[in-house]
Amino acid sequence: MNLLPRDNRFDLDNLFESFFAPGNLSQDRFFSPKVDISETDTGYTIQAELAGVKKEDIHLELHHGVLTLSAEIKQEDKEEKGGRLIRQERRYGSIQRNFAVGDAVQQEDISAKFDNGLLLVSVPKVEEKEPEKKRINVV
Question: Please, is 113 exposed, middle or buried when counting C-beta atoms within 10 Å of its C-beta (0-12, 13-18, 19+)?
Fold first, then answer.
């Protein structure tokens, strides 16, 4: 029986996966967590999968109506003795995701909870006020 090696150059299904594998990019690379966004009558819920991230390495900031989620995974230095590292699939690096929530949402209105690698962010629906129009007389 003849098996094709996994790194066959003609395997288009795995071409992009292997190109972006952790060993092929710098240590300061970005990763993108899985995010689910749901809507209720009163607001929005953002669920971000952040497995391997510590609570103190998660940062949420609100600036001009944009909620920014950033986090960092720090990999421990590992030294192989008596062998070599064949494949490393643990991820490391940092993320930054932006969510437009509108200018009417205030920082105090947003709540976040982190449990077992899942970040749950609640953002209330706030009605945007129409900017007040004032007529300026031309003289």
Answer: exposed
Cα distance between residue 62 and residue 69, in whole Å:
9
Phi then psi for 62, rounded to 5 degrees?
-115, 125
Kindly give the pairing relationship between strand 111-115 and strand 93-100: unpaired
Is this model's pTM higher than 0.85 or not? Answer: no
* Cα-based distances in Å from 96 to 33, 47, 122, 123: 9, 14, 18, 18
Cross-strand partners of 38: 45
Q: Per residue of the chain (139 residues), what is the pLDDT tens digit?
A: 333 444 444 454 554 454 444 444 444 445 677 899 999 999 999 999 988 788 999 999 999 889 999 998 876 656 566 677 766 666 677 888 999 988 888 899 999 999 999 999 999 988 877 778 888 889 8
